[in-house]
Amino acid sequence: MKKEELLNREEMLHYLGYGENRPDEVMAEDIAYCEQQLIEAAVPKYFYKVYPIEREENRLWIAGHGLELKGESIKKHLEGCELVSLGCATLGKEVDELIEATQKTSMLDALLLDAAANAGIERVREKIEKELKQEYPDYRINWQFGIGYGDLPIETQAEFLKLVNAEEKIGLTCNENFLLVPVKSVTGFIGLKKRTEGIKEVEEETQRGTRCESCTMKDRCTLKKKCL
After folding, report:
1. Are 157 and 180 spatial neighbours (Cβ–Cβ below 8 Å)?
2. pLDDT at 207 > cutoff 60
């Protein structure tokens, strides 16, 4: 993807807590500067692979593999789905290094870079959903359910990354606490549900009201007003 596609000023401002307000001229210039810094540093990459889903009683796992998807949240997310996409995306270690270096000179700029990066990784993640919709027109595509959302164990991360060979594909790993490295990265599951012929389909529930209900941070999130 083109690096300019990473920019999402509205999303960035929401991460910064502006709500309906707008930054003044001086802050807007600083934001634009940090956005340019992000574009220069970022090396956006993404990868996904689609697998059949196997079910047995109340268990759910990736067909042909040992990855079991535990918890009621992911089961609800994949309810009625025959296929699931395992997707991962990253802005690259260079963005982490830029934010870390900036913290030593300007905490404000580091905060702005962090917000821009959070908005940027969402843009990379969205590429996966868009491509799936093109590749699987006979399926309804829902949104990417991140590892650690709801009651899906964060420990799923290591096996997930190994299954999709994320380190080789896009340089993505996790540490001993199952946190992603590089930090500005995302992983998760997107359900694919076969469209029913002759029945008018409701537009996919892509957006954040549904996501918020599954998020472990929903009671503390500063974006909740926007998401709902």
Report:
1. yes
2. no
